[in-house]
Amino acid sequence: MKFRTRAIHVGNEKDPETGAVVPPVHFSSTFVQPGAGEWGEFDYSRSGNPTRQNLEQTLASLEGGTGALAFASGMAATHCVTMLLKAGDHLLAGTDIYGGTYRLLQHVVGPSGVDVSLANSTQLDTLEQAFKPNTRLLWIETPGNPLMSITDITACAELAHRHGAWLAVDNTFATPALTRPLAAGADLVMHSATKYLGGHSDLLAGALVAGSEELHGQLYYLQNACGAVLSPLESFLLSRGLKTLELRVHEQCKTAQQLAEWLSGDARVKRVLYPGLPNHPGHALAKNQMQGGFGAMLTFEIDGDLAKTKRVAEATQLFQLAVSLGAVESLIEQPATMSHASYDASDRAAHGITDSLIRLSVGLEDVADLRADLDQALNA
Amino acid sequence: MNQDSLIDAKPANDANSTLAVHGGEARQKLADSVTDPIVCASTFTFENTQSVIDYIEQQQPREEYGRYGNPGEKIVEKKLAALEGGEEAILFASGMAAIVGLFMSKLNAGDEVVFFDECYHRSREFCSKHLARFGVVTRQVPACDYDAMESAITPNTRLLVSESPTNPHLSIIDLERFAAIGKRHNVETLIDATLATPYNVRPLTYGVDYVLHSVTKYLAGHNDLLAGAIIGSQDQLESIRNLRGIMGAVNSAHNIYLLQRGLKTFALRMERHNQNGQAVAEFLESHPRVEKVYYPGLASHRDHTIAHNTMRGFGGLITFLVKQADWKETAKIVDAVTVPRIAPSLGGVESLIEQPLVMSYYECTPQERRQFGIPDNMIRLSCGVENAADLIQDLTQAFNA
User: Fold this and answer.
1) Given Cys at both, which of A326, B126, B244, B392 links A196, Cβ 3.0 to 4.6 Å?
2) Which residue among A3, A22, A244 places its CB closest to the CB of B269?
3) What pLDDT is attached to residue B292?
4) Dihedral sign, Cα of residue B15, residue B16, residue B20, residue B23
């Protein structure tokens, strides 16, 4: 079955007891067992819940993995991955990554004794030099946040495996509708499912999809031990959102492409960072790595200082000023003061996150309405 | 900035995606949430006695008790009104609750209602069995026979009713002509546009008085809630709203939220339902085991011209007859499909399939089924938003099974 059909049907088989087309939501925290010391399929909802399991089956199918795990948030999922490491191990991450991931690695994982370093994952030579004998995990994000850099997943997988490390890919921006990192050789995919997978700005969730039974087993053990599982109601809402994932993402990509082209021809805009533009440094790679669109996130730099940038971000009427992304409602934000405020100022400068950047999350609204809104806001 | 949102003020010529996402919603919401909260209150508090008096004297519109309305419900009603291009919408607990609410508020003993006969059998049953008990006279005329409808009007006639497209024959009503008959005789008109949705046609723009929806179908779209709605002018809906407060067929706050969430992708889903419906209908028409396909998007359909001129697309519902098959051979095809599930209802992301003989008309006599135009070899397929190639491949194997 094709991707979109699987998104609707895998993990959503009809309820055998009632015939319900949509599986029931199981709120039960605990499950009655067949006997003392005998265990049924489910015992306690932290260890497994039927509604969460349905969702995990859908996620595993969409990413092409052996198993998936649903978490209370994207950060909970990322944190679970870092728990695979122990003091003395080295974790290597790209530089164009989510501010929250940066904070977790630099200020939580690092101080616990794991050796953390960042390197530009779009420069394979630089990246290779950053490997150490104790490197256990390479963490990349593509498209990167907020600069929309494109990292070569296949090349990174080869590199990581040559050095005896796992490759984990934060696939939040691309979604499995556009990119399937496991097929490109990655060992693990992470999602902030709050974004495109949920898609409606109304839940927080994270997901991990493993490419092997072994890795899935290790991560399951950690999830159960640490406990940051997704609630049944959120699992249901997320499953419901997945049914329109491909429709939403393809439509949002189409709109983002049109907005990117329009912005890059506008004199008030200094540069547009969008992988779908031929002048984007990662365009050729993205064309190969992303099928069906270049994502619906785009960043642009305006001709103005921090204050002017702030005014523009605050002047839109349809785009709403908020962090997060990937939903039906279009959002606008200023990375320097919002999504990437948790970067150290020096790192922000070093990684090119300037004060005049504006990041858009393009929603499902009509492209003409969004263009008109940006047009008036740029005059603010 | 005007908090009432630019979307409300904007004249929208069609039910587009911006309207589906933002229509009826305030830009700045409670607690600065990007989505509206679920307000689970059964009742709403008053600050003091004077505020109760102010409310009763209607100087201060506000909530009172859950049965009279809920903040979330008001937002969804505004969104539905915006999508239909109507002044106001009223939500009910189901499509049947909506049509019953309209009938009960508009018809009195001695009044008459005229139906086009291709209609949902439960609507017909409510009129013939229950409205009759209250002395309301129901007349039926063949669908699309406008002269017959006009001739059936008497001085007591209060309402003309039709679906468009009809179910399961997918006949298309000439809405302009239908509305004009009502206007000429000073009789109100109602169109059940569940199968069309405002994405494909907006009956109010043709002069129809009321649009009815089983919101359960395309509008909600996920096969996971029941709801109904009537859209029309504020004046005409007032008595229906008052009656709803007494009858109590309202939606829960949770149901309303799922509906609002479903509506966000409404335009997107409809575009895909239309594409899948057209592709599968064309496939079926060319298949040697198919005798006839009812789909307004096919040139062979009796009402194709009027459909083509008035609708943006034709939805995901397709009815077809299997060539030289009795009911058992027809059932074999239904049982052999693997993607659509066997179930009544339609309009959700999951494709559904049914044999009307078995599903809705099993208890009818063969003669009644002939009268309703339900042959034994009829299959009704509601195309979801799955990949069209998967649906076609699945039907192909089912025909060969």
Assistant:
1) A326
2) A244
3) 98
4) negative
Its pTM stands at 0.89
8 A C-beta contact, residue A118 and residue A128: no
CA angle B8, A365, B77 (to 5 degrees): 40
Neighbouring-strand partners of residue A36? none
Residue ranges, comma separated, of all CATH 3.90.1150.10 domains in chain A are: 245-377
Mind giving me the DSSP string for A240-291?
A: HHHTTHHHHHHHHHHHHHHHHHHHHT-TTEEEEE-TTSTTSTTHHHHHHH-S
Q: DSSP of A302-371, one letter per residue?
A: ESS-HHHHHHHHHH-SSSEE-S---SSS-EEE-TTTTTTTTS-HHHHHHTT--TTEEEEE--SS-HHHHH
For residue B237, give Cα distances in angstroms to B81, B160, B209: 12, 16, 10
How much is the pLDDT for B127?
86
Tokens of A182: 């496991």
Check B387 against A1: CB less than 8 A apart.
yes
Helix/strand/coil for B315? coil
* CATH fold of A245-377: Aspartate Aminotransferase, domain 1 (3.90.1150)
Assess contact for B241 and B61: CB atoms under 8 A: no
Q: What is the pLDDT of residues B9-66, one digit of tens each?
A: 344 567 789 999 999 999 889 889 999 999 988 889 888 888 888 888 887 788 889 8
Structure tokens at B222: 């996920």
| B34/A364 Cβ within 8 A | no
With H, G, I as helix, E, B as strand and everything else as coil, classify residue B241.
Answer: helix
pLDDT tens-digit map of B112-152: 999 999 888 888 888 888 999 889 999 999 999 999 999 99
- Compare CB distances from B269 to A240, A247, A327 and report the shortest one's residue: A247
The nearest alpha carbon in chain B to A237 belongs to B258
**Residue B17: closest CA among chain A residues belongs to which residue?**
A365
With beta carbons under 8 A apart, name residues in chain A contacting B389. 2
Give the C-alpha separation, B74 to B250, whole Å: 12
Strand A320-321: give its sheet, edge to edge. A269-273, A297-302, A357-361, A331-333, A320-321
Q: If interface means Cβ-Cβ distance under 8 Å, which residues of chain B face chain A?
A: 1, 6, 16-18, 20-22, 27, 34-35, 222-224, 261, 264-265, 267-269, 272, 339, 341, 343, 345, 348-350, 352, 384-387, 389-390
Over residues A61-74, the pLDDT tens digits come to 999 999 999 999 99
Chain-chain contact of B341 with A21 (C-beta, under 8 angstroms)? yes
Residue A319 Cα, gap to closest chain B Cα (Å): 10
Of A2, A8, A369, which has the smallest distance from its Cβ to B389's Cβ?
A2
- A15 neighbourhood in chain B, CB within 8 Å: none
Burial class (CB in 10 A: 0-12, 13-18, 19+), A40: exposed
> Looking at the predicted structure, is the pLDDT value of residue B5 above 60?
no
Which residue ranges form the domains of chain B, and what is each CATH number?
A: 7-261 (3.40.640.10), 266-400 (3.90.1150.10)
CATH 3.40.640.10 domain position(s) in chain A: 3-242
Q: From CA B203, how far away is CA B310, in angstroms rounded?
A: 10
Cβ separation of B27 and A200 shorter than 8 Å? no
- Chain B: nearest CA to A335, how far in angstroms? 19
Q: Look at residue B266 and give its three-state secondary structure.
A: helix
Taking CA atoms, what residue in B is nearest to A23?
Answer: B224
The predicted-structure confidence for A283-297, as pLDDT tens digits, reads as follows 999 999 999 999 999
